[in-house]
Amino acid sequence: EVKILTKNGVERWVDFAAGVVELDGKTVVVGTAFDITARKQAEVELEQNQELFQRFMDCNPTCAYLKDEAGRYIYANKATERLFSNIKGKTDFDVFSDAIAKELRANDMAAFLNGAVSNFDETTEGANGLLHWQSFKFPMTFSSGKKLLGGLCIDITKQKKLEEQLRESEERYRTISEITSDYAYAFRVEPHGKLT
After folding, report:
1. What are the φ/ψ torsions at residue 192 (nearest 5 degrees)?
2. Of residues 12 and 191, more confidently modeled
3. pLDDT classification of 37: cutoffs 50, 70, 90
């Protein structure tokens, strides 16, 4: 494959092959050239699209992954790999406890059956304890019949902790309110200054 410049000044890609043959008692070089410019342009465009996708996924702060029908991770972006290293080729049962893996697998199957985007609150184990996720899972079917499950997960661990702190605070306030309500009095001040 070589790039040539036509007499009109246009660059073209050609697939060129040549060989030496005997013709009428003389040794001659015979060659063929096929214009492959369109294929080369498509290859460049494909590379650019792959790079664009990869950069987008790697800069994305959410966890993103693809699983096959058996539940094996076949793709994981950098955010996912940072939290769950070497996850590609593994299933949830290889990474998490049985209880968590069963829940994740049940949600995967529900998303496959739903046939559309499904939203789940999920919990996984991390290096510093439990992680809480808002997970969006969606099935993808290709023209070959191959099915994959896509997933995007947003870490809501801080939000869950704040919600728990709020619940605890409200419970403390309710308890204090119930205890002190027996001692709370209402007073009314009359216009002439007398309490009633």
Report:
1. -90, 5
2. 12
3. confident
H or E stretch covering 60: none
Cα angle, residue 65 at apex, residues 79 and 143 outer, rounded to 5°: 150
Residue 160 has pLDDT above 90, yes or no: no
Between CA 22 and CA 38 the distance in angstroms is 34
What average pLDDT does this structure show over 67-84? 94
Question: What does pTM read for this prediction?
Answer: 0.68
86-124 b/e with 16+ CB inside 10 Å = b?
A: ebeeebbeebbeeebbebbeebbeebbeeeeebebebbb
Calculate ∠ Cα 67-126-148, nearest 5°: 5
Q: In this structure, are residues 65 and 95 in contact, taking their beta carbons and an 8 Å threshold?
A: no
Whether residue 134 contacts residue 156, with contact meaning beta carbons closer than 8 Å, is answered with yes
CA 169 to chain centre: 35
